[in-house]
Write a structure and sequence with these properties.
The active site is at residue 126. The protein is an alpha+beta fold and 162 residues long. It has 9 helices and 4 strands; from the N terminus they run H-E-H-H-E-H-H-E-H-H-E-H-H. Helix 4 (53-59) packs across helix 5 (69-76). The chain is globular. The structure holds guanosine-5'-diphosphate and magnesium ion.
C-alpha cells in the first residue's frame, strides 16, 4: 500500500544528535530531548558516555584543519555526552533547524542554541549536517543492535496516515 510505503520512507530517515558536555552539565538533557520529542520525532537510540579524545577526533575528523579542532576535541572528551539517534520525516534537515546556527549569537530565538547557549565553543548540541554524515556518525557512536526499530502509536497522528 502506498500509505505504508510513505510511512516506511518517513521512518527511514535518521540523524545523530549529541548533547555535549556543557549541555549535560547545565542540566539541559530533558529540555533538549523534549524539543525533538514534542516535534514528533522518534528516539531510536540513546546512551550517556565520555568519549575518548581519539573518539572525539574521529567524530570531528572533517574539521581537523581548523584552528579550534584540538580544543573542540578536548572539550567533547571532557565529560559525559548524551548520544542519540532520532528518526522521522525530514529529521536531518529539520533537526538542524531545531538546533539553530553554529554560533549561538546568530541562532534565532526559538532554536535550542538561540534559547540556551551564548558562545560558539559551548553551543551544547551536535546534529548531523547531511545524510552521509548522519550514516557515518550513527555507525561511529552506535552498534546496529543499539538502534531500536519500533512503531510509535503517535505516528498515525503525526503523519496523518491511518
Ligand atoms: P555545527 O555542525 O553547527 O556543530 O558546526 P561545525 O560542524 O562547523 O563545527 C563543529 C563545532 O565546532 C561547533 O558546534 C562548535 O562547537 C565548534 N566551532 C565551530 N566553529 C568554531 C569557531 O569558529 N570557534 C570555536 N571555538 N569553535 C567553533
Ligand atoms: Mg557539524
Amino acid at each position: 500500500m502506498l500509505q505504508d510505503q510513505q510511512l516506511q520512507a518517513a521512518e527511514l530517515e535518521r540523524t545523530f544528535i549529541a548533547i555535549k558536555p556543557d549541555g549535560v552539565q547545565r542540566g539541559l538533557i530533558a529540555e533538549i530531548i523534549s524539543r525533538f520529542e514534542k516535534k514528533g520525532f522518534k528516539l531510536v537510540a540513546i546512551k550517556i558516555m565520555i568519549p575518548s579524545k581519539d573518539f572525539a577526533q574521529k567524530h570531528y575528523h572533517d574539521l581537523k584543519e581548523r584552528p579550534f579542532f584540538n580544543g573542540l576535541c578536548d572539550f567533547l572528551s571532557s565529560g559525559p555526552v548524551v548520544a542519540m539517534v532520532w528518526e522521522g520525516e525530514g529529521v536531518i534537515k529539520y533537526g538542524r533547524k531545531l538546533i539553530g546556527a553554529t554560533d549561538p549569537q546568530k541562532s534565532e530565538p526559538g532554536t535550542i542554541r538561540g534559547d540556551l547557549a551564548v558562545g560558539v565553543g559551548r553551543n551544547i548540541i551536535h546534529g548531523s549536517d547531511g545524510s552521509e554524515t548522519a550514516k557515518d556518525e550513527i555507525a561511529l557512536w552506535f552498534t546496529p543492535r543499539e538502534l531500536v526499530s519500533y512503531t510509535s502509536n503517535a505516528e498515525k497522528w503525526i503523519y496523518g496516515i491511518n
